[in-house]
Amino acid sequence: MIVVSEIGKLKEIIQEWKQKGEIIGFCPTMGTLHAGHMDLVTQSKKQCSKTIVSIFVNPTQFNDPKDFASYPINTDSDLQYCQEQGVDLVFLPSVEVMYPKSLTPIQMSIPSLQSNLCGRTRPGHFEGVLQVVSKLFHLTEPHFAFFGLKDYQQFRVISALVMELNFPLQVIGVPTKREQDGLAMSSRNLRLTPKDRETATLIPRMFQLAKKTLVGGEKNINTWKEILTEFLLTGINLKIDYLEVVDPLTLQPVTNLSGDILLATAVFVGEVRLIDNEILTCPN
Ligand code: PAF
């Protein structure tokens, strides 16, 4: 496995691979890798002849400096994990390499996809994601890029970026990997106290309740949201950032429980912000 921190060296290797006709798969991460990330790698290895993982905690996508400062970093175990999984190259740049002092900073956004969910409650977050992901795509020149569907809004925003700006690559969404009790895997789970970890199971249980009440015949979207909100709020130390029902494609709010809908939530359990979502099909 090659570990590269400099752009020049990375470009050299990519050119070599391209000349040999390799198919490049790219899995961008912020490290503290878990089995969810490894699903991205597994998928990439199935489809591509070379797999690149980037590990970079991107400062520009954190709207809360405290959240950035406490984001977990485990580079040694991440590299070992990548080696074991047969990753070909890890790109591990510093902040200075990714963001050399620029006199002309660029800001990107896709307003219609950012007006709800995390885009609404984390102003500036997707601008940072679009910035870093565009740079990483240019640097790694992948044929395929793999993103977890736990960050569904991110997946939609990046898919739109690629389509609107004609990036020559395909974005692949990989299903959310869950712990045995249903909690979506996340590097942030490591920061939960044992008590808060137990409280966090209310999130997957809320999705179970959502499906049960839909099948049970609930037709009123406001009543449905109230039931789900009340259920989440039984958690001690839990604060809801949002609980929204939107169209899975446009990410605009829906007013009826019909067809396919995206139920998405972000909650703070203690200091830790957790997100999850599911696309549900409403019974006729
Ligand atoms: O999903 C993430 O871990 C990050 O948002 C990403 C895509 C690596 C960009 O920093």
UniProtKB/TrEMBL annotation:
It is found in: Cytoplasm. The keyword Plastid does not apply. Coiled coil: none annotated. Catalyzes the condensation of pantoate with beta-alanine in an ATP-dependent reaction via a pantoyl-adenylate intermediate. The keyword Nucleotide-binding applies. It comes from Leptospira kemamanensis. GO terms for molecular function: ATP binding; pantoate-beta-alanine ligase activity. It catalyses: (R)-pantoate + beta-alanine + ATP = (R)-pantothenate + AMP + diphosphate + H(+). Its EC number is 6.3.2.1. GO terms for biological process: pantothenate biosynthetic process. This is Pantothenate synthetase. Belongs to the pantothenate synthetase family. NCBIfam families: cyt_tran_rel, panC. It holds the Pfam family Pantoate_ligase. GO terms for cellular component: cytosol. It comes from the Bacteria. (R)-pantoate binds at Q61, Q154.
